[in-house]
């Protein structure tokens, strides 16, 4: 009969067995289901309450615009034709940009519509000095730009304009505070000329940053359905579907088709569908994907391509750069054909037309200090020192989450001066591409709240989960083995007691049956083996 002690030992074996089974089952379930991945995908799927949506709606990251002005150091000698244009870089003047995506509407077709709002604040502690106090010599962009814009409009337009410039004593180079140059000043010539040639002059006040942030009420429609083929732009997760109702950019010649017909002028050059605003990228990025980044201030899409992979703070990071040919003329890069339609001749390598987005003034975008541009652009201006380390764009993205970790997007704005013949006061500028300023849009990893969240989701949580799986598996296997060994020992103990009872009644002179043989010879051997593991004391 089983004694009370044996029953307690049996209960212990059963408990150990159950612990082993449950631990092993939980370990397998954690391994098979991968709850960390489920939580990760849930938080990174766009829904009205998800983490990624709340982060996208009002990004908790520091975005700064560092502005560098090109100050003219020899205004008199240059205008007199005695010296080439000499400039020095002044800056940075730093502004923080705060983005909020407003008026969000969720649609049944897997898209959302919204209006981005950007607000800027001066950051004195990061700036060179106060832009109100710093005085610079700079091109009178409205006056020069208007003259360049109407240079081919004939005598009846250009001669009166030149006479008005002389009458109003409108100067081609102004001395003014940096603040006015950045955020707006008026020129009497422009104010009068706006009534004469309104098709060319549709502004009264000019400011370098004022135009960049004069975005208006733009409605963006974005796809939020995940697609399996990330290499295909059409339908890509978190890509733009339409901008102000159009999948293209009309100012670069995009025409809305009335039917499904193909319009020859509608190309990748003026298409915006499939591009991204750059605040958030798809999850699980494929390194072969080329992203086209659009922002109204850019006036066009800017392609970025994968450069390298590295690790920072335990996070996998992809580094991107601008495509090497994104500022090449159409004969070198056919994708840029539409950016040259409004010009008499295409701009030189390293320049892209900016005119439709810059008061209709002939302007062009380039890399800072004409980096990687046609050498003749640098030859026309003294004081430029292109440096790849300082002036090249670098974008670091965490590919699993699709979030920018560290960004330096560097772009320069220039005034393109055509040849004018009716105003000798601006003759020195003829044929020049005049650098106005360059900006560095920076997202720093320092103080980036998203990094802590990403490390929790991508580094800490998987390690904790894997450790828990291993611990549970070890506990499960160990307790299962212990329960098995304990059970065998109890069986051995009971069999031994039975054998002793039988041994007293067995006549050793008679042949042994199988049960008797087992009790007398085999069970003692089992006891010897199991006694090495004293499970219950």
From TrEMBL:
<dbReference type="GO" id="GO:0005044">
    <property type="term" value="F:scavenger receptor activity"/>
</dbReference>
<keyword id="KW-1003">Cell membrane</keyword>
<keyword id="KW-0812">Transmembrane</keyword>
<keyword id="KW-0325">Glycoprotein</keyword>
<feature type="transmembrane region" description="Helical">
    <location>
        <begin position="468"/>
        <end position="491"/>
    </location>
</feature>
<dbReference type="Pfam" id="PF01130">
    <property type="entry name" value="CD36"/>
</dbReference>
<feature type="transmembrane region" description="Helical">
    <location>
        <begin position="12"/>
        <end position="31"/>
    </location>
</feature>
<protein>
    <submittedName>
        <fullName>Scavenger receptor class B member 1-like</fullName>
    </submittedName>
</protein>
<keyword id="KW-0472">Membrane</keyword>
<dbReference type="GO" id="GO:0005737">
    <property type="term" value="C:cytoplasm"/>
</dbReference>
<dbReference type="InterPro" id="IPR002159">
    <property type="entry name" value="CD36_fam"/>
</dbReference>
<dbReference type="GO" id="GO:0005886">
    <property type="term" value="C:plasma membrane"/>
</dbReference>
<keyword id="KW-1133">Transmembrane helix</keyword>
<comment type="similarity">
    <text>Belongs to the CD36 family.</text>
</comment>
């Amino acid at each position: 009969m089983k004694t009370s002690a044996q029953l307690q030992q049996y209960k212990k074996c059963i408990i150990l067995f159950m612990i082993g089974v449950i631990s092993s089952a939980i370990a397998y379930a954690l391994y098979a289901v991968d709850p960390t991945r489920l939580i990760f995908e849930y938080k990174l799927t766009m829904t009205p309450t998800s983490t990624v949506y709340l982060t996208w709606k009002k990004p908790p990251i520091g975005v700064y615009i560092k502005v560098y002005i090109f100050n003219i150091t020899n205004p008199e000698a240059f205008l007199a034709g005695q010296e080439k244009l000499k400039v020095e870089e002044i800056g940075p003047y730093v502004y923080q940009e705060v983005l909020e995506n407003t008026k969000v509407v969720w649609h049944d077709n897997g898209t959302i519509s919204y209006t981005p709002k950007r607000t800027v604040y001066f950051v004195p502690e990061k700036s060179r000095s106060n832009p109100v106090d710093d005085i610079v010599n700079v091109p009178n962009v409205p006056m020069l730009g208007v003259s360049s814009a109407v240079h081919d409009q004939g005598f009846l337009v250009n001669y009166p304009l030149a006479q008005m410039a002389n009458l109003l004593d409108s100067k081609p180079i102004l001395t003014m505070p940096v603040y006015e140059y950045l955020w707006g000043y008026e020129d009497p010539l422009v104010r009068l000329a706006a009534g004469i040639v309104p098709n060319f002059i549709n502004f009264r006040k000019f400011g370098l940053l004022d135009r960049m942030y004069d975005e208006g009420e733009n409605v963006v429609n974005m796809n939020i359905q995940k697609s399996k083929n990330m290499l295909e732009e059409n339908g890509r997760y978190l890509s733009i579907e339409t901008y102000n109702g159009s999948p293209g950019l009309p100012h670069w010649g995009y025409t809305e088709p009335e039917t499904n017909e193909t319009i020859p002028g509608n190309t990748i050059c003026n298409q915006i569908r499939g591009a991204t605003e750059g605040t958030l990228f798809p999850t699980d990025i494929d390194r072969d994907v080329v992203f086209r980044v659009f922002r109204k201030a850019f006036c066009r899409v800017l392609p970025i391509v994968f450069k390298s992979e590295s690790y920072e703070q335990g996070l996998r990071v992809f580094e991107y750069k601008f495509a090497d040919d994104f500022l090449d003329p159409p004969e070198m890069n056919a994708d840029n054909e539409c950016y040259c339609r409004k010009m008499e001749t295409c701009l030189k390598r390293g320049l892209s037309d900016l005119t439709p987005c810059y008061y209709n003034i002939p302007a062009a975008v380039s890399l800072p200090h004409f980096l990687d541009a046609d050498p003749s652009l640098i030859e026309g201006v003294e004081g430029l020192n292109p440096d790849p380390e300082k002036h090249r764009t670098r974008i670091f993205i965490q590919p699993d989450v699709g979030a920018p970790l560290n960004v330096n997007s560097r772009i320069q704005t220039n005034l393109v001066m055509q040849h004018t013949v009716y105003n000798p006061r601006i003759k020195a500028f003829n044929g020049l591409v005049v650098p106005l300023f360059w900006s560095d849009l920076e997202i720093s990893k320092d103080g980036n709240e998203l990094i802590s969240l990403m490390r929790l989701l991508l580094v800490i949580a998987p390690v904790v989960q894997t450790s828990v799986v291993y611990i549970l598996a070890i506990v499960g296997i160990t307790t299962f083995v212990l329960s098995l060994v304990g059970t065998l020992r109890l069986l051995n103990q009971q069999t031994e007691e039975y054998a002793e009872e039988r041994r007293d009644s067995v006549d050793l002179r008679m042949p042994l049956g199988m049960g008797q043989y087992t009790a007398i010879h085999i069970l003692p051997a089992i006891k010897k083996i199991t006694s090495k593991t004293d499970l219950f004391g």
